[in-house]
C-alpha cells in the first residue's frame, strides 16, 4: 500500500519535470550561496588562526605598551626582576619599491626558534649567520621569492611553517633595518616562570597583558566586519532561495490534491501520507544540498582571490591561496539545506495535515481572506523595525549595526504585502473601466501567493540600491580624497638616505619644493600607529583633507605643539580636537585636527617633522613628494632617473599613483558586486517560480473572465501587465528602503567596521537602471505562464465549470 | 672522537649554536679573537670583568655546604660569556651571548636551571668595579673590596638560594702567573681562582628552606681556543683537603693521549703549578647517568705531594641537562687526604 502510495506521489514529478528542476535549483542556489560564503569565511578564519599560530602568538601571553613602544631599558629591568620575557620588534621595511612586514625576534629565546632552526638546518645555513651581520631572513617560500627579488644583501631561509607576507629576522637585524635600537613593540611572556616573582602589574603598570588567545584574534577582530558582511549576504541569499522552495513545495502539493484525496479515499492513513511527503522532501533536500555544496565550493573558489585582495587591501590581512574541503562545512551546508526545506515546506505539510478528507480544490479567490494576515504581518514588521531601531540606539558596535539592518530589512519585507495591497486598492478606485478594475482586484487577489517572491525582490533590490549607493559614494569620496591627499606632482623613492639627501639638495637648488615623507612606527595600546612628520608647507595647508580642526591648525602642528590624527584612530580612542595624546610617556601633544584616511586599517598621526626627528633621528629619509609645474614633470623624471640612477618604478607621477590606488579600491569591491548580482538573480528566479505556482491555481478565476469574452491573448497580456505592476510597486518601495540601507552602511556599519564615516551621494541613474532590470525580470518571469495561457486548450478552461476538477 | 659529534648543536636552535662555543667551539681557530699571551700580567680589579675580545669566558662558583643536621649539599653558580665575534657593540648589535647555570645537589637530589641572554641590552653582563655579574635576577655581587665579600643568588622552578661569601685567603693564579697551558700544542687560557670562600646562607628547596654553611671556590677563566683540535672533553677536579691544602687538577682527553695539569695550593694560598703529567686521575666505577656511562668514582694521585685519594660523587646523578650538558657535582675525598670538592666532566655521551 505504502509502496503504491509512494509511486503515486512521485509520479507527479514525472509529469512536471520543470517543477522538480525549479525546486532543486532553488534549494541548490540557497545552499550554494550560503555555503560559498561559509567556505570563504572558514578559509579566512583558519588562515588567520594558522598565521597566529605560526607566529607563536597563540603560545604565550603578551605584554604590550598602552602607548608608543617599550623602551629597551624597561625590558632589561623586567628581565632583571626575574621575568622570562622575549622581545619582539615589528615594523615595515622597504626593499626597492616593495614593503615587507618584519618581525624581529630574539633568536635565542622566542617560541618560534625551534621551527626556524629546523628550517635553517635544512637550508644548511651557517649556524650563526642569522645572529651576525648582515643577518638572515626567514619567510614563507612565496614571500621569500619576492624578497630575494627585491634584495640580495641578506640571505633568506624559506619555510612554509611561516605565514605569507611576514619576514622574520633576528632582532639585531630588525632593529638595524627599522632603525629602532632602543625600543620594542611588545614582549612575550614565556611559559614556566619562577614562582614568587613581583607581579608584572606592579613592575610595569604601563604595559597591558594580552592573553594568548586574544593575541591570535587580532586579525580576526580586524576583519570581523568583512566576514559579518559576507555572512549577511549569504543569509540573504539563503532566505531568498527558500522563498523559491516554499513556492514550489506549495505548488506541488496543490497539484497533488486530487491524488491525495484519492489515496486517502483508498485508505492510506494521513500519518503515512505526511511521512511520505516528508521523506520526499528530505531526499530532495539532500540531493539539492549536495549539488548546492558543489556549486558553493566552485563559487567560493572563484571568489577567493577577490576576497584575498579585499582583505589585504582593506585590512592588511593575508589569506592563504587554496580552498580546502572541511567536514564541518559539508555537514553544516547539508543541515542548512534540510532545515531550510522543512522550514519552507512546513506550511504546506501543515495544510495537508489539516485538509478535510473530501475537500475540494481551492476555487474561491483567496485574496479577501488574506487582508487580515497582511495586517498581522505588517504589525510584525513594525515590531521588527522598532526592535532594530532600539538596538542601534542602545547598543554600539558592528553587531548592533547588523541587528538594526536585519530589523530594517525584515520589517520592511513584512510590511510589503499590506503596502502593496493598499496601493492596489487605491489603484482600483482610480479606474472605472471594468477590465481595469478586474485587473487591479485580481492582482490583489494574487498577492498572497506572490508576496514571498515580492519580498525577495524587495530585499534584493534594496540591497542592490543600498550597497551600490555605498560603494559609489565611497568611490566618489575616495577619488576626491585622493586628489587632496596626493597633491604633489611626482613621488620619488631613493635607494638610500644619502641619495635622498643629495636629491633634496639638488632639487632645492633648482627651486623645486621637496616634501619629505618620513614616518616612525610605534604601538599605541597594543595596535600599530604610524607617526608621520611633515614639513611646514603650503601644500598641506591648502590640500590636506581635514574633517575637524582647531583654528590655526597648521601653525600649531608646525610649531611642534600639536598633531593631527586620522579619523579611524580618533574614533577608536574617542579623540577630539583640543584633547591631548601621549605618543610616548614624555611626549604629549594637543590634537589640533582630524583628517580622513580611507583604506587604511591602522591609526596614523601627523606632527611636525622637526619634532619627530628630535625623538627619532634615525627614521629613513627616502620618500619625497615634489611640487613643480605639471608640464615639467616628464623632463624632471627623466633627469632624476639618469642623474641619480633611481629605478624607473621609484619615480611615480600623481596620475600613476592615483590609478594604482583606485585599482586597489575596485578590486576591493569586486566581491560585493558579484554577490549583489547573484542575489538579484535569485530574486528573479523566485518571481518565476511564484508565477508558475500561481498559474495552476488561477484557472478558476480566469475561466469566468474568459467566458465573459476576453481572449486568451488578452488574458496573457494582463498576466504580464500584472507582473509588471507588482514589480514596479515593489521597486518603488525598495528605493527608500535601499537608501536607508545605504545610510546605515555608510554612517553606522562603516564607522564600526573601518572607523570612517562617508558622506552619502545619490545616483538616480543607477536606480533607474535597477528598476528597469527588475521590470525586465518581471516580464521574463511572467512570460512563461503567459505563453502557456495564450495557448491553453479552451477545454481546460471549460473544465473549471464542470463539477469536478 | 670528534668534538663536534659530541654536541650536536642544532637541536635546540641558536642558543645552543651560539653557546657550545662552550665546548664545540673551544677547539676551533681563534679567527680574529684575542689569544692569551704568556707573560701578560693579570691586573685587578679590571680582569674580574669581561674580556669581550676573547671567545669564551666564565665566572664559575662551586661550594660544598652542610646543614645543621650534617647533611651535605653542593651548589653551582656559573655565568658563561660566549662571543660570536670579537669585541662589543651597542644594544642588539652586541655579538656577546650570556648563559648561566645554577644547581643545588644533595645526596638524593639534583636540581638545576639555565638562563640565556643577549649581551649589549643590560639583561646580562659583568662589571669589574664594583664587581657585579648578573643574568636576569641571578646575581654574583661584591659587597666589599673586589671579590672579598660577595652575595650570590639564583632561582629555578624548584629551588633558589641566597648565599654570602667571604674570602679567607688570596687569589690564586694558575699556570705561569695565570697563563694556563691546556695542550702540548700550546693552547692556553687565562685562569685564576679564589678557592678560600667561607659560605653561609639559605637554600630554598622543595622540602622547605635549609640554612647551610661551608666552603666555596670561584674559578675565572677566559680564552679563545683553550682546547686542541683532537681534545674531546675534560675531567676537572677542585679538591679542598681537611689539612687546608687544595688541589686543582684536570685531565684533557685527546686522541693523541691525555693532557693533565693543575695547581697545588698551600693552606696559606701559595700556588705551585704542576707540570704536565704530575697529576693523574684514573676513572673508577661508572654510573648510569641519563643513558650514559659516566665515571663517578675516581682515583686521583699527585705523587710529589703524597696525594693518593678516592674521589666519590656525592650524588652520581649530578647531570646538568642544560643546552649543552655535562656532569657537575660535589665529591667527597678519602685516602691519603680527606676532604671535599667538586668534579666536572664534559664530553661524555
Query: What would the principal axes of the Cα set say about the shape of chain A?
Result: elongated
Largest sheet of chain A: 8 strands, mixed
Ranges of chain B with pLDDT <50 over ≥5 residues?
1-13, 15-27
Share of helix of chain B, binned: under 10%
Q: Helical stretch count of chain A?
A: 26
Query: SS-based structural class of chain B?
Result: mainly beta
CATH topology category name of chain B? AttH-like fold
**Oligomer kind:** heterodimer
Strand order of the largest sheet of chain A: 6-5-7-4-3-9-1-10
**In whole angstroms, how far apart are the ends of chain B?**
11 Å
Radius of gyration of chain B (CA) equals 19 Å
Tally of DSSP β-strands of chain A: 21
- Principal-axes geometry of chain B comes out as globular
Radius of gyration of chain A: 33 Å
Question: Into which percentage range does the β-strand content of chain B fall?
Answer: over 45%
Chain pair forming the biggest interface: A-B, 37 and 29 residues
Structural class assignment of chain A: alpha+beta
How many structurally independent domains of chain B?
A: 1
Q: Average pLDDT of chain A, to the nearest integer?
A: 81
Amino acid at each position: 500500500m505504502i509502496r503504491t502510495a509512494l509511486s503515486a506521489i512521485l509520479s507527479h514529478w514525472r509529469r512536471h519535470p520543470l517543477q522538480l528542476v525549479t525546486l532543486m535549483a532553488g534549494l541548490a542556489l540557497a545552499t550554494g550561496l550560503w555555503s560559498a560564503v561559509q567556505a570563504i569565511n572558514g578559509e579566512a578564519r583558519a588562515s588567520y588562526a594558522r598565521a597566529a599560530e605560526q607566529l607563536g602568538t597563540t603560545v604565550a601571553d603578551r605584554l604590550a605598551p598602552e602607548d608608543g613602544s617599550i623602551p629597551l631599558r624597561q625590558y632589561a629591568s623586567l628581565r632583571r626582576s626575574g621575568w622570562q620575557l622575549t622581545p619582539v620588534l615589528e615594523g615595515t621595511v622597504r626593499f626597492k619599491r616593495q614593503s615587507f612586514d618584519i618581525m624581529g625576534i630574539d633568536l635565542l629565546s622566542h617560541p618560534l626558534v625551534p621551527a626556524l632552526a629546523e628550517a635553517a638546518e635544512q637550508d644548511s645555513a651557517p649556524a650563526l649567520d642569522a645572529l651576525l651581520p648582515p643577518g638572515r631572513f626567514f619567510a614563507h617560500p612565496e614571500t621569500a621569492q619576492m624578497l630575494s627579488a627585491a634584495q640580495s644583501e641578506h640571505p633568506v631561509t624559506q619555510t612554509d611553517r611561516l605565514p605569507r607576507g611576514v619576514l622574520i629576522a633576528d632582532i639585531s637585524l630588525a632593529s638595524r633595518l627599522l632603525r629602532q635600537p632602543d625600543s620594542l613593540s611588545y614582549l612575550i611572556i614565556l611559559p614556566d616562570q619562577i614562582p614568587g616573582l613581583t607581579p608584572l602589574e606592579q613592575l610595569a603598570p604601563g604595559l597591558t597583558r594580552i592573553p594568548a588567545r586574544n593575541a591570535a584574534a587580532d586579525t580576526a577582530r580586524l576583519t570581523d566586519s568583512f566576514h559579518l558582511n559576507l555572512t549577511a549576504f549569504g543569509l540573504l541569499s539563503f532566505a531568498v532561495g527558500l522563498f523559491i522552495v516554499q513556492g514550489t513545495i506549495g505548488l506541488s502539493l496543490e497539484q497533488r490534491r486530487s491524488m491525495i484525496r484519492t489515496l486517502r479515499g483508498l485508505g492510506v492513513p494521513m500519518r503515512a501520507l505526511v511521512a511520505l511527503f516528508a521523506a520526499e522532501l528530505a531526499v530532495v533536500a539532500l540531493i539539492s544540498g549536495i549539488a548546492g555544496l558543489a556549486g558553493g565550493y566552485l563559487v567560493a573558489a572563484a571568489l577567493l582571490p577577490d576576497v584575498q585582495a579585499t582583505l589585504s587591501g582593506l585590512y592588511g590581512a593575508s589569506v592563504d591561496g587554496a580552498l580546502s574541503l572541511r567536514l564541518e562545512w559539508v555537514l553544516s551546508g547539508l543541515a542548512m539545506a534540510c532545515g531550510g526545506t522543512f522550514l519552507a515546506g512546513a506550511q504546506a505539510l501543515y495544510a495537508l495535515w489539516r485538509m478535510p478528507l473530501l475537500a475540494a480544490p481551492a476555487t474561491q479567490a483567496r485574496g479577501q481572506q488574506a487582508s487580515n494576515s497582511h495586517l498581522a504581518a505588517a504589525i510584525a514588521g513594525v515590531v521588527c523595525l522598532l526592535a532594530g531601531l532600539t538596538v542601534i540606539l542602545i547598543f554600539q558596535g558592528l553587531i548592533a549595526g547588523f541587528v538594526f539592518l536585519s530589523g530594517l530589512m525584515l520589517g520592511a519585507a513584512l510590511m510589503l504585502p499590506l503596502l502593496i495591497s493598499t496601493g492596489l486598492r487605491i489603484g482600483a478606485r482610480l479606474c472605472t473601466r471594468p477590465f481595469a478594475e478586474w485587473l487591479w482586484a485580481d492582482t490583489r487577489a494574487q498577492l498572497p501567493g506572490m508576496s514571498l517572491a515580492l519580498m525577495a525582490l524587495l530585499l534584493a533590490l534594496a540591497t542592490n540600491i543600498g550597497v551600490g549607493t555605498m560603494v559609489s559614494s565611497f568611490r566618489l569620496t575616495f577619488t576626491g580624497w585622493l586628489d587632496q591627499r596626493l597633491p604633489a606632482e611626482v613621488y620619488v623613492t631613493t635607494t638610500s638616505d644619502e641619495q635622498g639627501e643629495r636629491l633634496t639638495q639638488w632639487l632645492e637648488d633648482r627651486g623645486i619644493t621637496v616634501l619629505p615623507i618620513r614616518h616612525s612606527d610605534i604601538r599605541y595600546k597594543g595596535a600599530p600607529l604610524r607617526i608621520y612628520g611633515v614639513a611646514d608647507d603650503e601644500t598641506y595647508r591648502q590640500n590636506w583633507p581635514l574633517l575637524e580642526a582647531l583654528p590655526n591648525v597648521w601653525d600649531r602642528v608646525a610649531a611642534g605643539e600639536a598633531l593631527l590624527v586620522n579619523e579611524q584612530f580618533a574614533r577608536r580612542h574617542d579623540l577630539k580636537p583640543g584633547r591631548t595624546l601621549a605618543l610616548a610617556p614624555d611626549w604629549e601633544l594637543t590634537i589640533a585636527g582630524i583628517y580622513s584616511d580611507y583604506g587604511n586599517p591602522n591609526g596614523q598621526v601627523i606632527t611636525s617633522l622637526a619634532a619627530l626627528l628630535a625623538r627619532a633621528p634615525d627614521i629613513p629619509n627616502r620618500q619625497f613628494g615634489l611640487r613643480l609645474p605639471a608640464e615639467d614633470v616628464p623632463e624632471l623624471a627623466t633627469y632624476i632617473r639618469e642623474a641619480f640612477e633611481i629605478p624607473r618604478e621609484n619615480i611615480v607621477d600623481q596620475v600613476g599613483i592615483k590609478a594604482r590606488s583606485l585599482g586597489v579600491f575596485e578590486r576591493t569591491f569586486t566581491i560585493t558586486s558579484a554577490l549583489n548580482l547573484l542575489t538579484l538573480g535569485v530574486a528573479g528566479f523566485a518571481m518565476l517560480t511564484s508565477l508558475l505556482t500561481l498559474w495552476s491555481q488561477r484557472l478558476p478565476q480566469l475561466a469566468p473572465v474568459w467566458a465573459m469574452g476576453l481572449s486568451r491573448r488578452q488574458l496573457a497580456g494582463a498576466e504580464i501587465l500584472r507582473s509588471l505592476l507588482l514589480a514596479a510597486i515593489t521597486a518603488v518601495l525598495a528605493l527608500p528602503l535601499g537608501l536607508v540601507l545605504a545610510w546605515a552602511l555608510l554612517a553606522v556599519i562603516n564607522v564600526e567596521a573601518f572607523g570612517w564615516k562617508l558622506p552619502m551621494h545619490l545616483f538616480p541613474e543607477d536606480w533607474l537602471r535597477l528598476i528597469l532590470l527588475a521590470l525586465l525580470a518581471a516580464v521574463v518571469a511572467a512570460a512563461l505562464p503567459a505563453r502557456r495561457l495564450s495557448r491553453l486548450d479552451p477545454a481546460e478552461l471549460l473544465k473549471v465549470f464542470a463539477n469536478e476538477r | 672522537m670528534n668534538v663536534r659529534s659530541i654536541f650536536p648543536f642544532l637541536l635546540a636552535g641558536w642558543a645552543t649554536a651560539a653557546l657550545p662555543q662552550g665546548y664545540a667551539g673551544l677547539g676551533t681557530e681563534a679567527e680574529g679573537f684575542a689569544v692569551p699571551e704568556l707573560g701578560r700580567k693579570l691586573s685587578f680589579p679590571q680582569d674580574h670583568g669581561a674580556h669581550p675580545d676573547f671567545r669564551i669566558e666564565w665566572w664559575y662558583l662551586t661550594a660544598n655546604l652542610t646543614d645543621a643536621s650534617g647533611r651535605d649539599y653542593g651548589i653551582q653558580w656559573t655565568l658563561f660569556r660566549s662571543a660570536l665575534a670579537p669585541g662589543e657593540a651597542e644594544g642588539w648589535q652586541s655579538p656577546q651571548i650570556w648563559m648561566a647555570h645554577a644547581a643545588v645537589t644533595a645526596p638524593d637530589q639534583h636540581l638545576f636551571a639555565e638562563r640565556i641572554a643577549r649581551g649589549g641590552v643590560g639583561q646580562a653582563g659583568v662589571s669589574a668595579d664594583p664587581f657585579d655579574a648578573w643574568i636576569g635576577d641571578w646575581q654574583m655581587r661584591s659587597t666589599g673590596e673586589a671579590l672579598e665579600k660577595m652575595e650570590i643568588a639564583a632561582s629555578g622552578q624548584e629551588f633558589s638560594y641566597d648565599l654570602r661569601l667571604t674570602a679567607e685567603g688570596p687569589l690564586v693564579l694558575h699556570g705561569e702567573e695565570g697563563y694556563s697551558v691546556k695542550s702540548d700544542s700550546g693552547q692556553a687560557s687565562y685562569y685564576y681562582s679564589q678557592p678560600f670562600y667561607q659560605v653561609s646562607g639559605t637554600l630554598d628547596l622543595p622540602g622547605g628552606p635549609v640554612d647551610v654553611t661551608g666552603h666555596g671556590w670561584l674559578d675565572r677563566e677566559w680564552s679563545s681556543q683553550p682546547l686542541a683540535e683532537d681534545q674531546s672533553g675534560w675531567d676537572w677536579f677542585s679538591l679542598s683537603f681537611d689539612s687546608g691544602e687544595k688541589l686543582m687538577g684536570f685531565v684533557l682527553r685527546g686522541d693523541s693521549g691525555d693532557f693533565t695539569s693543575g695547581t697545588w695550593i698551600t693552606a696559606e694560598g701559595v700556588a705551585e703549578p704542576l707540570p704536565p703529567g704530575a697529576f693523574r686521575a684514573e676513572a673508577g666505577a661508572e654510573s648510569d647517568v641519563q643513558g650514559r656511562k659516566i665515571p663517578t668514582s675516581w682515583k686521583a694521585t699527585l705523587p710529589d705531594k703524597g696525594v693518593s685519594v678516592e674521589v666519590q660523587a656525592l650524588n652520581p646523578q649530578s647531570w646538568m641537562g642544560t643546552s649543552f650538558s655535562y656532569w657537575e657535582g660535589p665529591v667527597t675525598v678519602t685516602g691519603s687526604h680527606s676532604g671535599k670538592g667538586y668534579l666536572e666532566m664534559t664530553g661524555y655521551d
